[in-house]
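Good morning N.,

You mentioned wanting to compare the apo and holo forms, so I went ahead and generated the holo version with 6-O-phosphono-beta-D-fructofuranose. This is what I fed in:
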Amino acid sequence: MSDIKKIGVFTSGGDAPGMNACLRAVVRKAISSNLEVVGILRGYQGMIEADFIELDSESVSNIIQKGGTVLKSARSNEFRTPEGREKAAKNLRDQGIEGLIAIGGDGTLAGAAVFYNEHKIPVVGCPGTIDNDLFGTDETIGFDTALNTAIENIDKIRDTADAHDRLFLVEVMGRDAGFIALHSGIGGGAEVVMIPETLTDLEDAKTSIHALMSRQHRSSIIVIAEGDEIGGATDIAKMMREDVRFDDIDLRVCILGHTQRGGSPSARDRVLATRLGVAAVEALIGGHANVMVGIINNVVKLTPSKNVWSRKKSINYELWGLTQLLS
Ligand code: F6P
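and this is what came out, ligand included:
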């Protein structure tokens, strides 16, 4: 057990729906455990600039349903330097902050580990990113909402694709990972899915699309992860347009982009975020440092932060098999 009396909480990196629900759980659990809570605005940059606000139970009312993050987010270059981290540590100590809860993705948790090693301020991470690419949890906060947004849009694109007998290349987020593409491809009934975890072969894609067209299936959707190893949807469209065998196909590109990061969190994300927020405070109180809380097989687990970004989370290859089988 630790004797921490005051903690800081912040969100950092790309925002994700459910970050506010997580913050609310952190604040209320901390207060019910007799801890004071300070909100750090704009992530690590706010730590360096001492941009702090006191948080109480009321300050997190009416935020569980909101997308974005009320604490704001930023990517801080200064925090990448030892001098920046020194300033941040001094500000935290001046404020009496003895432990931190970091809500964010791999960059956020990597920063937290470096900070802990240098300054020994305990940090517990909560996985918050739509990409779902963090080892140590089955799902990250924001993934389910982003997935639903992607599927809603794929459904709409299918209507217009069908009306015009077109092939649509739909690009979803995932800089280094294909979780959103794979799951939205299955949920949206995509004819082909392209993700960085598997080799993308345009010859195979052509064969599938031509086979479908010969069966009077005139419109198709290819879902592409932005980080696919042969390029995003714009690059792949260029390759297809320059290829004679795609000449007869009317092709369009739709990039869903940051729409996937916004919106009210789904029920699943709110519940996940709430469980993880409470678990993070319990971990800090229990004396843990340099760990991330996650949920694996519906049980809360702690994973050493270094494993979170050094070990790659695998996609579900059974799902990948389904994309091959069902198109
Ligand atoms: O949050 C992760 C992510 O959604 C990636 O999939 C994407 O490449 C990136 O954020 C874009 O973030 P930004 O535009 O904020 O730099």
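The mean pLDDT is 95.

Happy to go through it together on a call whenever suits you.

Best,
F.
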